[in-house]
Every structure is written in structure tokens, then in C-alpha cells.
Amino acid sequence: MEKIKNNAFVKKIGFNRLVLTGVLILMYIAFAILEPTFLKYNRILSALNYAYFLGFLALGVTFVIATGGIDFSIGTVMFCSALIGGQLLTVKGWPMAVALIVSILVGTCFGILNGFMVAYMGMPSFITSMASMLLSKGLGSVFTGTQSVSWPQAAQGGWFRKLVKISVNGTQIPTGLICFIVVAVICAIILNKTKIGRYILCLGSNKEAVRLSGVDVKKWEFLAFVICGTLAGIAAIFFVGAYSTVQPGLGDTYNNDAIASCVMGGTSMSGGLASIGGTFIGVMIISLLQEGILAMGFQKDWQYVITGLIVIVAVYADVRSRQRKN
Q1: pTM of the model
Q2: HSE (CB half, 13 Å, CA atoms) of 276?
Q3: How far apart are the C-alpha atoms of 109 and 226, rounded to whole Å?
């Protein structure tokens, strides 16, 4: 095993990412054998619809987890953003572009709130994000009067849906996948090639040492939460682009799926180690898993069971890895 890990190609790609890719391929083959309809193009598109918004949530929370923090509010913030933007569009008559921008700004505001409370007020990210989860869930419900909001279809002027998919000669093209890949590449560059990413990762490794070296740790920790909130706002656009209707009081489960994607992808819950590529593959695995379970006629609850087991294994592997390094 060590010989394989030390191989030049494996080192360049990453052993964990290669294993995850193999798991993704094997999962697809298994689902295709058990349920032949899984080979249909529409099934793949359906799984990708789930991957887009989940992907943006997972990319955002990767930055927070890299600092050693956590954000349990991303799913409800996404719903709150979609509800407020949709209400302004469908009820108040605001222009489509403005409603979309507002949705992103709502997510950014929650990122600023979380970042300020954690970085500058010294509050634990666990408690802070739990409070923001309740706040965003309640705010979305109050703003819409506990009513669901339906964003317009493409035929009704919903041009934003082209961000998710377009039709070319009757064939649906998943443009959302292109957007997801582009944003993932940008996030990977920020995390691995810029000062922002270096300081964020250093915070997770040893925050006190970074502070003593003269770095403004509060600023970089704050920025990680702002990035997370902004991507949650963007995720709202891709959610309504794929599913149209948003109901108040929901969104909690997407927190778990996004965090599971990060942990599965190699981002350490202790901070200091993160992989955008791993998060991308983790998102694909979670999306494929939920689509496969539904395709086989099982209840969605089985997805929670399997995802929970995957997270336990991933966290245990991370703990063992750190123990060996120490």
C-alpha cells in the first residue's frame, strides 16, 4: 500500500481522490446493474440537479472547516436566500436580475454575521452556526408569511434556468456542471495558490502560532465564513433553477450532505487540511447515492443511514492519519 501511495502519479493526483473516484465509478456500476433505468440520460441529469446546489454549499463550507470551524447554517441560509429573492420577484415585482443578486447578498450577510461572531466576538462556530440556522429558517418563513415560493419557469421568463441546463435540439445540456467545475477550480486556486488559502489552512493547523507570527487571524477567519455564506447564496440560485419551489422551514438536511461531502473528500474536521477536488468528488458520490436510492424505490432515510456511516469511516480515517503523523 505504501508503495502505491509513494508512486509519482498517485502523489500528484492524490491517493484519497483516486480512491474516491474508484468508489464513484463502482457505485454507478452497481446502481446500473441493480436498476437498469439508471443508465438513462435523464437519471444522470436528475442526479446532477442535486449536485449543483449541494456542490456550492460544500465548496463554501470547505473553507470554514479548513480553519477548524464549522457552519451548520448553510442549508437553511440557502433556503432563506431563495425565499427572500423569490418573494421579491413574484410578489413585489422586482426585476429578475435584482432578485438573484439579493439572494446572493442574503447569503453573504449571513456569512458576515457568522464570521463576525466567530472571529471578532470569539464565539464557538458550532453555537454560532446553530443560531444562524434557526435565524435564517425563521427569517425566511416570516418574510414569506410561511408560504412557499415558486420561481418562474423558463417559458415564463426564468432565464436563470439556463445556468442549470439548456436544450439543444431537444437534448438537455447540463450547463450547471460547467458552472460547478469553474467555481470549484476558482476555489482550488484560492485555497492552494493564494495568500488567502495559505492563511486559512494555517489557522486550522495552529491558530495561535499564526497569531504570534503577526498575522491578523481574525480577518482571515472572518473571510472564510464570508466565502461560505456567499456560495450558499449562489447555491440558492441553482436550487431554484433545478427545483423551482422553495418551502419555508427546510434546508437542515443539506448541511449534513455538504459537510459529509467535504469530510469524505479529505477535508479534516480538525482543520489545516482541505481538498477542493476531494469535495467535488464527494458531492458527486452523495448526489449519486441519493438518486440511486430513490431509483431503487427505497426511502430517502436510507441515504441518511449510508451517509452517516460514510462520515464515520472518513472521520476515523482522518483521526488515524493524524495519529500516525504525530
Answers
A1: 0.92
A2: 20
A3: 8
Contacts of 211 (CB under 8 A, 6+ apart): 217
How many Å from the N-terminal Cα to the C-terminal Cα in the chain? 20
Distance CA 197, CA 12 (A): 19
Per-residue pLDDT at 17 exceeds 80: no
The tens digit of pLDDT for each residue in 31-68 reads: 888 888 888 888 888 888 899 999 999 999 999 999 99
Which DSSP letter does residue 152 get? P
Tell me which residue of 160, 162, 172, 166 sits closest to 44, measured CA to CA: 172
Distances (CA, A) of 232 to 91, 225, 257, 275: 23, 10, 13, 19
Question: Which residue in 88, 53, 97 sits closest to 74, CA to CA?
Answer: 53
What percent of the chain stands above pLDDT 90? 53
Do 115 and 224 form a contact (C-beta atoms < 8 A)?
Answer: yes
Question: For the CA atoms of 227, 261, 236, 176, what is the dihedral angle to 10 degrees?
Answer: 100
